[in-house]
C-alpha cells in the first residue's frame, strides 16, 4: 500500500492505495465520489472520464498512484457551491442531453475538455470528439445540441409544441 | 404559444440535476455495512459436463468467506419462466430447468459454475482462479437449423430434441392462406435474418443482497425495470421467501431496454447468500460478464411470402421463423417471437389472410429475451422488407403500394387476433413525405453521384402493440402474470402530493412527466408533486416498465387514483363552502361554487382532511390517500412512417446516413421533449442494428463479440447530423381506451428504423445497377461491398 495525496475538486485528499488501485476505484470507493461511473472494462465507454491536471482522462485506465500530486476534477465539482449548474450542465438539462444519466458524468467531463481546447466546435468536431463516450439512451442528438449550445452557437430548440 | 406546464409542455427534467452533479443513486453506489463481494466463476465452454469441481484450495485463500457451487442450490428452485406458449398441436412448450448455479452441466459460455464470496472483490477473483474445474466438452449447438436436424446434440438431455415449441398462428387460417397464395397473381418471397443483439444499457447489472437477522427480512438492491416482478418471481419460485419478508429496491437504473426486466441468477444468488452468510453480498457485473449473462435480443431466421392480386392488393402473408431461445428460457422469452411478433404481422395493412409459424429453438448460447421493441421489430422488418421487394418486382412506387393497402377504418380487427382502436396511416405517410422533400431526392441523388456515391431512399411504415396489456387477454395467451399497473396518490396536509407508482423510470423521465399530468388535473405546480418508484416497500404492487407501457398503463393508474382524490376533495370542499357537491368546480388549484364567488384553495381542503375539525366525518373518512390499479382493455397501437436516405460508397461498401425522417403517431403527448428524446434513442438503436451491431458466436459456441472492442456500439458520428434529421409526432390519433389518450413512444424508433435503412441501401445499390434483393443486418462495409460485387 502506498499513500497518495491529490487535489480532488479543489480539496486536498489522501489515502492508502495498492499499486494496482485504479483512479476510478479510489474516487468511488475511498472518496465515495460515486458520480464517476464504470460502464466497461476495456476503456471504451467513457463513463469514467475525469480531468487530471486539466486533461480528460479515463479514470479506469489510470492508477490512483499515478495521480499523486495531481489536480483531479470530477462531476461532483462542476456546479457552483450553491448548486447552480455550470453552463455545460445547464445546457445538458435544457437540451435534454441525458436520459438514464449513467454516461452523463463522463459526457459532461469530455465535453468540457473539448470546449477548453476548441471553444466553438463544429457539429462534426463534436461528434468526432465523442468517439470515446458511449451513450445508449439519447442517440447523441441532444448531447451534440447541448454541447454546441453551451459553446454559444445557435442550435434548434428542443420540442416545444 | 407553447405550454409551460402541464400536459403538452416540454418541462425540463428534474432528475437531470442529480445526474448532472454526480448525485444519482445507482445500485453500485449502494454499499451495505460489512458487505462481502461475490465473483462468479463462469463457464468458458459452451456445452459440457462438469467432471470435476474442486474448491478446497480456493476456499483456503485469503479473505474467502465461502464458495458456493450447484450442490448448494440443489434444493433451491430454478429461475422461472413467466410465459407459457401452447404450440400448434395443443402441446405446451418444453420448459427445461434453469438452475441458479450449474447442476453438473454447462449449456452456454458464461453460465455460473461457482460463486466465490470474499471480503474484497480482489480476493474473490484471486480465489476463483484457484478453483479446479474440469469440463468434458460436448458438441455445441449453435446454428438453429442444425439444432433441429435429426440426431442433433441436445442442449437438454431430458428433452427429446431442441425444439421448444412449434407455434402456428392463427392455425385455423393456415388453409385459407395456402389457398390465397396458390391463387395469387404475384408472390414475393424473402429469406432474412434478424441479427442477434445485446441490449447494452450503459450501467452494467448490479445486485446487493442483504439480510437482517433481527427481523428475518431480506432486501435486494438490483438494477431492475420491475422490482415487484423480481420480488414475486424470486421470492415465490426460487428462494421461497414470502413477499412480506422480502424487499426489492431498484434505485436509479442506468438504462434497461428490456434486458433489466428479467430475473437473473446473480440477484437470486446475492439474496440467498446474504441469508446463508448473515452478511450483505454485492455483485457488480463487468461489461464482459454482461455480454455473456445479460439476456440477448432478436436472433430470428425468417422466410416470408407476400401474395398480391392483379391489382396489387395484398391477399396473404405467410411467414416461417426460427427463433433462438438460447440455452434456457429467460423470463419472458417465449412470448417475444409469438405474441409480440405474430400479432403484428398485419402491420398497417388490410391483408385478409395471415399465417405465422414460429419454431423456438434451444441452442448453447445466452438466453434470448425482449430487447427494445421485442418481436415487433422482427415483424416489421420482414413485412416491410418484403413489401419493398414486391414493389420493385412489380415496378410500382413503394409509397403507393403501401398506401393502397393501408387500413383506413377503425376499429380494425386483424386476422392475427388484435384490434387496432385508432390510427391514420396516410397522415403519418403524408407528414413524412412532406418533411422528406421527396421531390428533391432526384437532385440529391445527382449530387451524390457526382461524388461517386450511390444514393438511396428507403421508406417504411410500422405499427406496434404497446401499453401491454389486458391481463385477461395475456392470460389466455399464456402469461403467468397480470399486466396492470398501480399508483397510490398521497396528498399531504399542506397540499403537496406524492405519487407512488409501480412503473419504473430508468431514463424515461417519469419524475418529470407524471407530475405534469397531476398538475394538469388539479392545477397545482408540478413541483408540488413527487414521484416515488422503484422500491417494493413504498410502492403498490406493479408490473414495471417495458413495452412502452409506463404512461399508457402506469399513468392511467395514476389518473384513476388522482380522480378518486379529486372526488373526495370536492366532497370536502362542498362541506366547507356549504354547497352541493355537484356545484363544486376545481380549477387552477381552487375549488369554487359554480355561479358564485365562493371558493376555497386546494391546500385548505387538504388541511381540512388531516385536521378534520370542520369536516363531514359521518360521510367520509379523514385523510387523502387513494390507490388505483389500472388494467387496460386493449393494447395501444402507435404507428409511424419513416424515411432514410443513405450514401453508399461503391468502392468500399461504406454506408452513411444522409437524411432521416420519422413521423410518428403516439396519440397525445405529455412532454414533447422527452418523447423526441425517446425516439432519438430508439432510432440510434435501430440504425445500430441495421449498420453496426452483431452478436456473434463461432461454431464452438464461443461468444466472439464479447466486449466493446468487438461489438460495435453506435457512436455520435455514426448517426445523422442535425440538419438532416427530423423526428415528428404531430400526427396524433389519441388512444380511445385509456384516460390520457396516450399510446407509448419508447420503442418506435427501434422498430421503425432497421427496415428503413436497409430499404435505402438496396435502393442505392439498384440505382447503380446492382440487382441485390437483400442484405442481412448489420449492413457492414464488407457485406455491402460483397453484395455490390456479386459475392
How far is it from the N-terminal to the C-terminal residue of chain A, by CA? 58 Å
CATH superfamily of the largest domain in chain B: Aldehyde oxidase/xanthine dehydrogenase, molybdopterin binding domain
Query: What is the subunit arrangement here?
Result: heterodimer
Share of residues in helices of chain B = 25-40%
* Category by helix and strand content of chain B: alpha+beta
Using the coordinates shown, work out and report the CATH topology of the largest domain in chain B: Aldehyde Oxidoreductase, domain 4
How would you describe the shape of chain B? globular
Number of domains of chain A: 2
CATH homologous group name of the largest domain in chain A: Beta-grasp domain
CATH class of the largest domain in chain A: Alpha Beta
The major sheet of chain B is characterized as:
7 strands, mixed
- Number of beta-strand segments of chain B: 30
Strand line-up across the major sheet of chain A: 2-1-5-3-4
What's the helix count of chain A? Answer: 5
Number of domains of chain B: 3
Largest beta sheet: strand ordering of chain B = 3-5-1-13-10-11-12
Strand content of chain A: 15-25%
